[in-house]
## 1
Amino acid sequence: MLLSDDSDGVRTLTLNRPHRKNAINPQLWIALRDALNEAGRDRGVRALVITGSGGSFCSGADISVRDDVHPKYKLQRLTDVALALQELPIPTVAKVTGVAVGAGWNLALGCDLVVATERGRRPHTTRRAGQRGPRAGRQFRDRRCPGRLCCLRAAAEPSFTGRWALSGSKDSSKDTENSE
């Protein structure tokens, strides 16, 4: 369900539910929280990468799984992961291949850096799922820097589109030329 691999001080956590596009079920929420806490305690880990298997990063929370707990406790699982991610003393990278939507996109935004392959997609479907835009990602807002989420959204766009929006031009080479 969650694979962990260490190499040269970098721990890679791989969401491993490819048959569900790595949708996070209750057990995976708990495993992810525990793995993040362990990474924070392990002095041999200098950086953390979160990725998904089977060509997808994460298609969000797995709502097809029946879970007979109060919604408050379901949200607590997500909050536990968000807090564990934000409290890590090491840099975190979301390596996005394929889809990253809903809770998956929020998980990516919770990392310090989002790196996407050309196949990385982040369609924002929270409006269709009944969430309003400002609520999307609320759990991953960094308490130490209230504007961090907005900064991450702006910073993540070039990683998905290959375009920079520094001066409004569509050609990033013009931005570089004008800034020198």
## 2
Amino acid sequence: MLLALFCAVSSAPSPVPPSWCQRREAWWARAPRRCQLIRDDPDGAWQILVELVARASDQETLGCVAAGTLEDLICKHPAAIIDRVESRATQDARFRKAIARAWGWTLIPKEIRARLDMLVAEERRW
């Protein structure tokens, strides 16, 4: 139910033709709700993240997921989430691409960042 609500809000139609900037603005307009979920329910946020990565319709959307939910989840809960991130990335090339597009590297402990760097060594970063 939480995923359905999150996806419905995240994919609400825009009155303006979509572009990267418009999607980005719509994405960040929902940042308080996303941040609350990541802060209060990282396990629920993880489940949603995996689904959002799978449903990303193009590279721009994948980049928004990476720069939003993925980045925030890693920055807020690095030690708790790194094993899941590594496991998922070894199974899912799309997830690796998302990791390569996440920023916030200065907010992640160095040992966690080193593990992430190893995962995406072959991926093109933005």
## 3
Amino acid sequence: MRQKPAKEEENSSLISDKDKKIQEVKTQISLLQYELINLLSEKEEQEGTTKIPLEIFSSELGALEALVKYLRENLGLEYKLIKKISGRSIGALGKTYSSAASKQKYEFLIKIPNFNIDIDILFAQKFTVLENLVLHLKDKSGMRFSQIAKMLNRDPRTIWTVYTRAKKKK
């Protein structure tokens, strides 16, 4: 049986130490994420609801895809909680997230949110996420279709169509 040279043992010891340090850092990051989620939850409880930055809807993703991806990756919510908030099945949420993750590999980078919207508004059951968003921005915030379109990076005709279809559903 061949005996390991001292240099090989030293290298494997260094690798082992590096692996341990990496694991310690991962644990610390997990704890920090957990603390951040708790702080966000406490803040949202005080404010009453979760706020979603409108910036996420201006990507190449659909409105529901963007919302589920943001909730999973940026806020670290589990499917069970998203299901409770949205009323959608875990399977549908999983497929939506998978589709979004394949289209956009990175999480949303929200610098300074210009405009936030309550999550409760986005998940009203009668309408799609985009319909709820457009209805709220048009009716409650008094924005013009062109302003909404620019904010959401969509064509103004699309916004008008979404709005009129949602109005017919009412």
## 4
Amino acid sequence: MNSTASIFGESGAQVMLGARNLAREIGGELIGTEHLLLEMAGVSDGATEFLLTATGVKYDDFYEKVVKYFGYARKRADLTAFSPRVKKIIQRARFLADGELVEHHHILEAFIGEPECPARMVLYHLGVDPNRFEQEVLAAIGQEKLVREFVASLNSPDL
């Protein structure tokens, strides 16, 4: 993970490190989408946590489902390697960051359009419609972008 650490901002790096730690805790061979989404869901005051809570999903229930479906307690690798889907999500997040450091919201937005990822399966088994969740994510990210642009305009020297 050290080779990619320089592309992440503070919140993005926290997500990646937390996902690695969760994958170690749960067990597995690679850091997967389920670990990323689980880490983002555990960030209090984060968009993912808010959206999951709004759909009735509790972090503990999400954690239990991830362990149920993906907990490979017998296999605990070094876990510095990402699954192919996580690599794809990181690439998409870098594109969305548009030359800036990749942050939490870029990673969340990068999940959109990844229809076969394990994280979507977990959401489905928790009774969440993954398509509706994605629509909510896009709406929340759109609002967050507007707020960031407004704050940036307040700091503009033109004022």
